[in-house]
Amino acid sequence: MKIVVQRVKNAHVDVDGNTVGKIDKGFLVLLGVTHNDTREQADYLINKLCKLRVFTDENNKMNLSLKDVKGELLIVSQFTLYADCSQGNRPSFIQAAKPDIANELYEYFCSECEKLDIHVEKGIFGAEMQVNLVNDGPVTIIIEKNNC
């Protein structure tokens, strides 16, 4: 399982011209799931994400977490995080989990974040989406937890 975390001033995701998820200050999270990912891996990433100290404090140091700044989450499923570009010019997505497995873990990830009293907005799983954001910093971090 892999997440790309972008610290944002605001972000929203549109499907068919309609906004389906919108946040102000917080994280835009792109979530990729591979075949053998588990809820335990999701729990690890949720813990890392929610405790990640990348918001600036009064001394202009990255020292505050999402909860410290009352930030929000916009979580978007993105199977292309598991693209394999090692051969040829057309990526292979064979490492991405099948939709039923990926959607179950995506929904689990979102609901567990909500249980931490964080406002969560989502994209629509499997839909063609347009993601808009104002990256703050810019700050972009990739976190991965493999099934070992």
Percent of sequence in beta strands: 35-45%
Mean pLDDT: 96
Low-pLDDT stretches are none
Main beta sheet: strand number and arrangement? 6 strands, mixed
- Would you report the number of β strands? 8
Total domain modules: 1
The secondary-structure element order is EEEHEEEHEE
User: How many whole angstroms does the radius of gyration measure?
Assistant: 15 Å
**Name given to the CATH architecture:** 3-Layer(bba) Sandwich
Describe this protein's structure.
With 148 residues, the protein is of the alpha/beta class. It has a single domain (2-144), classed as D-tyrosyl-trna(Tyr) Deacylase, Chain: A, CATH 3.50.80. It has helices at 39-51, 99-115, and strands spanning 2-15, 18-23, 26-32, 55-56, 62-64, 72-77, 120-122, 130-144. Strands 1, 2, 3, 6, 7 and 8 form a 6-stranded mixed sheet that branches. The protein is globular, with a radius of gyration of 15 Å. The model has no long low-confidence stretch (mean pLDDT 96).
